[in-house]
């Protein structure tokens, strides 16, 4: 079964890559395609272009005189799309010579599309990058302008640059600027938990989740306490592992950060979540495993009580949910070696090294992150702003969603050590997802899956280590 599933996964990825520049579909919002006459980025330009980027005076002249078109790509919910498009329009009104084309859609196909674009030299000028991709992308060379070279064009005084470098740098090379701060947590339906006698609290452990899952099932087998998006199964495995032994999934020396016995315990917990009905059977949830709560009918119909999510996605989910929501801290084991909750950048804004207009791209990023009017429009659609000045403005305006700030605070109370690059490798994550599905579909025992996963991971790491 696992081989068939891996084959299916490979076919899906191949299909996504073959789609190339086609529009992303299921992510709550379409894609504004470039006009047919728009030229592709000049693939002959290198990262050295950033070093000779014009200063503020020359950039201002370029922005006011030259007719230019730049492209900007991102993913997210409708709330993020609408706010971003409005800020683009605001910037273009101030700079009539500039046209900014938006390319936006679903997260699940974004990275495959980006890799296709990078391979063909057709990537946008400004690109949103998830922190999980930084290790893979920097291993391919300096594909993006080094943000350290743009301090005269982008005001970075409000950013914690140490935080930016932890997740976005390789040596002295900084891939981009973090837009927001993301914390993981549980978003829950207040009335659902109350109806089934589930008491929320920031002291939940993994046993608490199981106990409350059983409580819901005993009262109504058609309801489930929780639903895990596919990426959050991976997140859960990593969090439990870090709490168990303090290790990342893969160590810095490219060896597994776990024993087969430790991974078997984690896979056994996954199986218990399924067998107790705490989560729906994998076969029922497969249709929604790559979309978020705002597009999951079982959540919107109130058949689920909890949706694990990152704080930056809360506004979009809240807008789509016709019921009261609140947040819980992500579970932490009582004897945790490391609390294991990740607090990360919600997204990095980067500039392609192939961009013909890096000065204009930098000017727009500066506007997006630092202009008071733009900040008021974007609000917290990409999480609590990483720019302290922007955060203070939104706090004063009272526009930061209380659930977002609460989830970030809850995550910070249990923040774990940062993940390392090897643990974020895309091939490693695909392999882990394969075995999570084997256990979730009850096709392999936790012990069998753990032993095979560790063995196959060791072989994979030998091929990808430097």
TrEMBL record:
Entry similarity comment: Belongs to the bacterial solute-binding protein 1 family.
Residue ranges with Polar residues bias: 35-46
Domain of life: Bacteria
Biased composition range(s): Basic and acidic residues: 54-64
SUPFAM superfamilies linked: Periplasmic binding protein-like II
Entry's localization field: Cell envelope
Protein name: Oligogalacturonide transport system substrate-binding protein
Keyword list, A-Z: Signal, Transport
GO CC annotations on file: cell envelope
InterPro entries (UniProt xref): Bact_solute-bd_prot1, SBP
Keyword hit for Transport: yes
PROSITE patterns hit by this protein: PROKAR_LIPOPROTEIN (PS51257)
Signal peptide residues on this chain, from the entry's feature table: 1-23
UniProt-annotated stretches for the region Disordered: 25-64
Pfam families attached to this UniProt entry: SBP_bac_8
